[in-house]
Design a protein that fits this description.
By secondary structure, the chain is mainly beta. It has one domain: Beta-galactosidase, Chain A, domain 5, CATH 2.70.98.10. 3% of the residues lie in helices and 44% in strands. It has two helices and 30 strands. It has helices spanning 61-66, 239-244; strands at residues 2-10, 16-23, 29-33, 38-45, 51-53, 74-75, 81-82, 86-89, 92-95, 104-105, 118-121, 125-132, 143-151, 156-165, 169-170, 174-175, 178-179, 193-196, 198-204, 210-216, 228-229, 248-253, 259-265, 271-277, 281-285, 293-294, 300-301, 307-312, 327-328, 334-344. The strands form eight sheets. A nine-stranded antiparallel beta sheet has the order 11-12-13-14-30-24-23-18-21, with no helix packed on it. A six-stranded antiparallel beta sheet has the order 17-28-25-22-19-20. A hairpin with a 5-residue loop joins strand 26 and strand 27. The two termini are 26 Å apart.
């Protein structure tokens, strides 16, 4: 196991961005930027032993700064949406940036995806740290964060999030990697198979904001309890699909603690990605709003050329008492972990 570091580029305001490569005994590797703790590449072996980059990304800092979509980025303080960018906590009203229609999305105008993080290196892991000041993007409290990315000889990528705040606040951390197990830039993911270990999902309105209603997946296009093609039902005349322009929904994961959330697989490469997490939900997003753009190595990315597997607390939990709470109490320790394990089908 080794970690190499080199300069990746500079931000528009002159901050130096580095890229860190963690390589395991198999020669598989992960490239991570300290800009937004961003997963830039995930190169794992296919069924023939050839390395395939299964993570969409860009070749330059400028592209990360200019493009939307949060490709590979670490998201916070609050992933997903908060209704109208407003919430009340302990009787105090807070106002956040509105950057997604009428709602707040993924931490606001300058979320954690735009921070150049302090970074230290161990043999198989990267430790990122950042202190988010009280009032940043409108959130209460000074939040001290530690984020660890590790990659082992079993081709397992583990993301660990820890935080503590000096005031009660809301928090929902995730990573927004765009996966394509056929290889980044090879086209649609609709021919790849997905299994999600969830019996329910949260209903969205036309702005992809939860209505508060939790629905059973049975008898709907959201039933991935048995593996099926991502594209099998995506064009059905279903109001939930119409509201998300495809899949852009939170699934209610079974059980608690570290357990499997979903399995993504490609018949073309034989690569299988098993996602395990401590989080209560996972946002399955089929890149419905990805506009045509240039990606790594001159590849072209388009709508539905990837899928995001965003382990998370439920969207807008602060306004839905029936959802698991996203409130972090003063002095309490926030801890969540997600693991993406890459294997090949037999």
């Amino acid at each position: 196991m080794s970690v190499q570091v080199k300069e990746f580029g500079k931000t528009a305001d002159g901050r130096t961005v580095s890229v860190y490569r963690i390589t395991n005994v198999n020669g598989a590797y992960v490239d991570v930027l300290d800009y937004g703790c961003t997963l830039q590449s995930i190169c794992v072996p296919d069924q023939d032993g050839n390395l395939v980059d299964v993570c969409l990304g860009y070749d330059t800092v400028a592209e990360y700064e200019a493009n939307d979509g949060y490709l590979g980025a670490f998201i916070g303080r609050h992933a997903n949406r908060i209704k109208e960018g407003k919430f009340t906590l302990n009787g105090v009203d807070y106002t956040l940036a509105v950057n997604n229609g009428p709602n707040h999305l993924h931490g606001g105008l300058k979320g954690f995806d735009k921070v150049v993080w302090d970074t230290s290196v161990a043999s198989d892991r990267l430790l990122f740290s950042y202190t988010s000041p009280d009032g940043e993007e409108g959130y209460p409290g000074t939040l001290v964060l530690s984020v660890i990315y590790s990659f082992d000889d079993n081709n397992a990528l583990t993301l660990t999030y820890d935080a503590v705040c000096n005031k009660d606040t809301v928090i929902n951390l995730t990573n927004h990697c765009y996966f394509n197990l056929n290889g980044a830039g090879t086209g649609t993911v609709l021919d790849q198979k997905l299994q999600v270990f969830a019996d329910q999902f949260t209903e969205n309105d036309a702005d992809c904001l939860p209505t508060g209603k939790i629905k059973d997946v049975e008898g709907t296009p959201f039933d991935f309890r048995i593996p099926k093609l991502i594209g099998a039902d995506i064009k059905e005349e279903n109001q939930d699909l119409i509201n998300g322009s495809g899949y852009d929904h939170n699934f209610v994961l079974r059980g608690e603690g570290m357990r499997d959330a979903c399995v993504l697989s490609s018949d073309k490469t034989g690569i299988v990605c098993t996602t395990a997490t401590t989080q209560p939900g996972i946002q399955i997003y089929s890149a419905n709003f990805m506009t045509e753009r240039k990606g790594k190595g001159g590849a072209t990315y388009n709508m539905r050329d990837a899928i995001c597997l965003e382990t998370q607390h439920f969207p807008d939990a602060i306004h839905n008492e029936n959802f698991p709470s996203a409130v972090l109490k003063k002095g309490e320790e926030y801890h969540q972990e997600t693991k993406y394990t890459f294997t090949v089908s037999k």
